[in-house]
Structure formats: C-alpha cells, structure tokens
Specification:
With 342 residues, this protein is an alpha/beta fold. It has a domain of 209 residues: 3-Layer(aba) Sandwich (Rossmann fold). The protein contains 12 helices and 14 strands. The strands form 3 sheets. Strands 8-6-7-3-2-9-10-1-14-13 form a 10-stranded mixed beta sheet, sandwiched between helices. A two-stranded antiparallel ribbon has the order 4-5. The chain has a two-stranded antiparallel ribbon with strand order 11-12.
Length: 342
C-alpha cells in the first residue's frame, strides 16, 4: 500500500512535512527569466517586478533564484541523509532593453546545493528539439551576429551525504526494485530524447500550458532510478501531480505541494486514476522487456537468467528478483489517494 498527498501551500515553508522524512525529491520549478513565470516570481517578491520594469535583468534573475533557494533550503531539511534530489530546469534566453543574453538557471541551482555540501552527480540533458523553421536567432546567414538555439533542458542530480546502505528488508526491497538491463542503458545515458515514450496519463484539458508539466516518462524514470519500493518522494512544485502518478505506478509514496489551489485541485483529480491506467504503464514496461529479450540472438538468450516473479528471461542475475506489482485499487479520501497493490 502507498499513499499520495496533494498539499496546497508555499514550498518556502513546509513545516507540515517532518525533517529527514523523504528519500527522494523529483521536481521541475518555474524557470527564472522565462516570461510566463514573471508574475509568479513577482508575487513572491515585489522587487523582482520592479527590477524587470527597470530593465535590470541580472538583478531580477538573481532575485528569482533567491526565491527558489528558500524552497531548496526546505527540501534540504526534509530530505533524509543519503537521499537524492533531481531537478528539471531549463536555462532562459531573453532580450531586455535590446540586449539578448542567456540566463544560466542550472548553474545557480548547482551553486546552492554545492554550498550545502551535496555531491553534484552527472546531469542529464533532456533533448527538446524545436521544429520551427525560424528557430535560429540573430542575423540570419551573416556571421558574428547569430545565436545558438537552446534545444535541451537539464535534469540535475544531487546526493545528500554518502551512499545509501541497504540491509535486511531494505535490501530485499532494493533487489525487487531493480531495473532491467536495457532500461539502465537508456536511463543512465546523459542524453534523453523521450519522443515516443509515455507522455501523460492525466485527464485531458487540465491546463498543461499554464503549469508546464513535464512528461510522465521523466519522473517515472527518476523515481525508479533513485529510490526503492516503499520510499517517499516529494515534489515541491506538484503542478498536475505527474510525479505522484509516477510514484503510484512504481510502488512509492509521494507528497506533492502546489501553491495554486486551482492547479492543486486538478492534481488531485489527476492522481485519482483507475487502476487500469496505472497498470497500462506497468504492462507496457514489461512488454518492452519481453520484446527486448525476444530480439536477442539465440546464443545470447541461452546466457540469460530467469526472473521468478514474472517468469521471463533477464540479462543479469541482479534482475532475477524484480517484481513490479500491479495496482488492485485506487482509493480517495480528502487530499490523499491510496494505492493497494496485488
């Protein structure tokens, strides 16, 4: 059984969540200096609006990150020792008062967590290729005046303290939570191109453009890469509850915090999905693995091991204990959804 809560509140103050109570944080904050988020940051610090009105982009940029740093400080308090935090963030390009420049958001996040003593782990580039015919900016075909077009965002990965140790029951859960060999080779690449993968299992017409949710595949991978069955995952920018959905499909607990009550209501509706919607994700994952094994030459299949729970072959001995439990029922009470697994 896992529980999934949507809390309405400001993530600069998460007093309702105890210290050191979550093992993983997966989130995507508003991106500083991206215009769609100007009002959001301005409401939290009026001096940001003043800086933008004065065409002082650098000051606004740093003040926006000061707002985010208060949230990262709360995340640090809540994250357990040896836990991970994964942050999807994009850099911004913007013209202010006729001056075009890059605002490197990912560097500010790295600097904060370095200052807190976190280990900065290799990051991931999420490829977001533009199909626009006019995507190149600047002076057209002439040199010394055009600008590179950004077609990626960052997924930053930090670890608090040293490596997590597993023993007894936690070791068994870790073994059960292993990923498949072919998943490891894709997931632990530093370049993700997720076109054609699971995008969303949320209900339609829920204001995606307004809250800029990332596709389901991103938190689903991260939850399975950096946590174990039964762990608790926090998303301090819950949006439509995509991280919570990924946790529901992965047998993890989750807490989502959303400052906008309207968006929080949508998130709660989104995570009250049918078991079949979640089980569809699991069935697809298992089917992809079976297809991979089927694609192997006969001599390589002979060297495979047998997974007991699912009765199929796997590439390595570490995969033999994998057991992905289907969801039996999804129950809702107030701001909490409970998943019962078979």
């Amino acid at each position: 059984m896992t529980t999934h809560k949507i809390l309405v509140g400001d993530s600069r103050n998460l007093a309702a969540i105890p210290a050191s109570s979550v093992q993983l944080i997966v989130t995507s904050p508003p991106y500083p200096m991206v215009e769609m988020w100007d009002n959001s940051f301005g409401r939290q610090d009026l001096s940001i609006k003043a800086a933008l009105e004065a065409n002082d982009g650098i000051t606004a940029y740093h003040k926006m990150h000061f707002v985010l740093n208060k949230i990262w400080a709360e995340c640090d308090r809540i994250l357990s020792e040896n836990g991970f935090i994964c942050i999807n963030i994009g850099d911004a390009t913007r013209t202010i008062n006729g001056n075009f420049q890059l605002y490197p958001n990912h560097t500010q996040v790295i600097l904060f967590f370095q200052s807190k003593g976190y280990s900065v782990l290799p990051d991931i580039h999420w490829r977001k290729q533009s199909n626009s015919p006019n995507k190149f900016m600047g002076s057209g075909m002439y040199p010394a005046g055009a600008y590179v077009t950004y077609e990626h965002e960052y997924i930053l990965v930090f670890r608090k303290g040293g490596k997590r140790l597993f023993s007894g029951e936690s070791k068994k859960k870790r073994q059960k939570s292993a990923y498949f060999w072919e998943e490891r080779n894709i997931w632990f690449s530093d370049l993700w191109d997720i076109k054609g993968t699971s995008q969303s299992i949320t209900v339609p017409n829920t204001g995606r453009d307004r809250n800029a949710s990332y596709p389901f595949e991103i938190p689903y991978r991260l939850v399975n890469m950096y946590s174990s069955e039964g762990d608790t995952v926090l998303d301090p920018f819950a949006g439509l509850g995509t991280t919570c959905l990924a946790c529901m499909a992965s047998n993890r607990n989750s807490i989502g915090v959303e400052i906008d009550p309207t968006i929080a209501d949508l998130a709660l509706k989104n995570i009250h999905v049918t078991p079949d919607a979640l089980n569809g994700i699991i069935r697809s994952r298992l089917a992809k693995h079976v297809a991979f094994i089927d694609s192997l030459p006969a001599e390589k299949k002979e060297k495979c091991y047998q997974n007991t729970a699912h009765d199929f072959k796997v590439k390595t001995k570490q995969e033999t204990a994998i057991k992905i439990d289907p969801i039996k029922s999804v129950l809702s009470a107030g701001n909490t959804v409970t998943c019962i697994y078979e």
